[in-house]
Amino acid sequence: MAPRAAAPSRPKVSATAPGRSDRTLVDGGVADWLRFLGADTASDWVPLWPPDAFALTAALLRRTGAYVALVNGLRSRSKGRRRAGGDDPIDVGQKWRAALDRVLADSPQTLEQACPRAIRRWWAALMSCGEMSLADCASSPALVEAATSLCIASDEASVGIGIGNTDEDGVPLPPDPFVAVADSVLRKNGYRSFCLSVPPQKLAVLAKQHTPQRGCTIRSLTHHLALYTPTEIQAFWWGPFESAEREPDVFNLLLLPWPVEVRARDFHPMSRRAARSDADGLPPRHRYFDYRPAAAASPASVARRVVKALDNAEPYVDKIHGIVLPELALSPEEFLAVERVAVRRGAILISGVRAPASAETNGMPVNACAFQPLGITAVQKYASTPGPIWNAMRQFQLKHHRWCLDRNQILQYGLGGRIPASRDCWERSFIGRRDINFVTLGSWLTTCVLICEDLARQDPVTEVIRAVGPNLVFALLMDGPQLRGRWASRYASVLAEDPGCSVLTMTSLGMASRSRPRESVEVDRSRTIALWRDAIYGEQEISLGAGDDACVLSLVCKKRQEFTIDGRGDNQQAAFPVFAGATPFPSQT
Asked: Which of 256, 261, 257 lies closest to 414 in space, CA to CA?
């Protein structure tokens, strides 16, 4: 049960708040802004839950840009006051967390009993500026110090939120009381936010894995909490899922770049009449295509092929922890068949999925990805056969942007006999609700998936990915060879630099083999099916040899220190999956 938040006292909002200007009537004031976000500014209310305090103050700091004072000496100017009896936000946050763990271990207790006096005092100082114009906030040292102190203390109080915990040997540990309550709050909010009082429709707070080490944004202020404003992107935080066993020293992914053959006749150009449902109003030069490969095998035969690939991978690895297939690789029926194999073999499954048109999709096919983490979690032993738990754990995410085949690409992929190169030809797929799913496995790995164009057209998903800083981004592509210098490498480097994500881009061998750039090349690179990029060691092309159609990618976790803009380190807890080897092999020998 979520704890009850009692209301401690604080001074009323002053009608003559310092710094008031005529612009208050134009853009509103601090109290108006915080009230809109969910704060109760008309009563003796204080944000008693750290994610709530963070959401309100970080949103204010972001809106006004006042956090920039932290790189201009704000904290150093306040050190003398702290030594003279003031409060250090770091110490306050750590004491707040210790008190929360004490009171939350005893359910009748309330959050009020854990709230430090400094939190109440900083909130009162913030509210004393309640009528100040937002435009004037950055010029008020008292307001900026109160807001940044609340933000820092909230972050320090939230260590471990949304992330699993293990002992030195990698054995999972039960969550402490604060984390357990945070998990229950997350579930209550539909896995959208850790906030208790701030509505997830206004602001969402998720957990965080990386703090940007370049630039100066609100994302640079925290190690543990990520702020994001829900817009057309709905972000979800799933996990942490407790590992079925101790966390591995080496994390092995089985890459299956299937199909190994893509034929020109798999691309079906649509007449304007056939595509009319979503082509009305577009210029006549636009056309549409469907990607519909002929069914080559039954779902059961595809599952048997995956079993054979897993068996053939055994000589090279201790265990396969995940299976990855590229964009549009499986039908829904094939995914469900392969899912059974993955779960029973103790592996996660990530794959592109192509689904046929239906009334629910306005007569358009579906291009999506599906992520099933069940196999690697402790829950697996309670769900040995498909059922409600399987359905609840499986995440399904639609592609955000359509692929546009232009003249160069039509020629590059040898499609000129099927698709007229005189016009742009758009992928005819359903664009529904735009989601991004963050899945946390164990204590250090948070992943998300992007589908081809979603890596290149990063709006509107960029904000939340950069805020969270997931350790590992899977980009499932229908593209040519994954070479250094091509578009996927460029966009992966953006996420590797800020916030520090490791990125795997992967295409099918069939599409890579179709790619024939007009520029002559000395070496055939068409079997380069994946590209790995991390912030520590850079890029690594992953190629298959002749006769190979599968590959094991091995990763290890590298820990490094990250710092916030106010100078706080994270005790070497920033985790980077890094390249540890790639072994190609034939899956069906």
From this structure: 261
Distance, CA of 314 to CA of 332 (rounded, Å) = 27
Task: Quote the CA–CA distance of 179 and 101 in Å, as a whole number.
Answer: 9
> CB-side exposure of 522: number of CA atoms within 13 Å?
0
Residues 194 and 291 placed together within one structural domain of the fold:
no
Whole domain around residue 431: which residue ranges? 251-585
Classify residue 350: in a domain, yes or no: yes
Angle at 513 between CA 290 and CA 474, to 5 degrees: 70
More confident residue, 348 or 270: 348
Q: What mean pLDDT comes out for the span 299-323?
A: 96
Residue 218: inside a domain: no
Peptide bond connecting 18 to the previous residue in cis, omega within 30 degrees of 0? no
Which residue shows structure tokens 């080496």?
Answer: 250
CATH value at residue 308: 3.60.110.10
Q: Is residue 149 assigned to a domain?
A: yes
Residues 304, 433, single domain; the answer is: yes
Task: Give the mean pLDDT of the chain.
Answer: 88
Residue 540 and residue 533: Cα distance in Å, rounded?
Answer: 6
- pTM metric for this prediction: 0.91
What values do phi and psi take at 270, rounded to 5? -105, 135
On whether both 145 and 260 belong to a single domain, the answer is no
Quick check: 366 pLDDT over 90? yes
CA separation for the pair 472, 494 (Å, rounded): 14
Higher pLDDT residue, 558 or 286? Answer: 558
Residue 107 has pLDDT above 90, yes or no: no
Q: How many domains does the chain have?
A: 2
Lowest mean pLDDT among 147-161, 266-280, 504-518: 266-280
User: Residue 460: is the preceding peptide bond cis (ω within 30°)?
Assistant: yes
Task: Report the distance separating Cα 28 and Cα 445, nearest Å.
Answer: 42
Both 271 and 351 in a single domain?
yes
Check whether residue 119 and residue 256 sit in a common domain: no
539 and 417, same structural domain?
A: yes
Q: What is the mean pLDDT of residues 126-146?
A: 92
Across 47-62, average pLDDT: 96
Residue 573 lies in a domain: yes
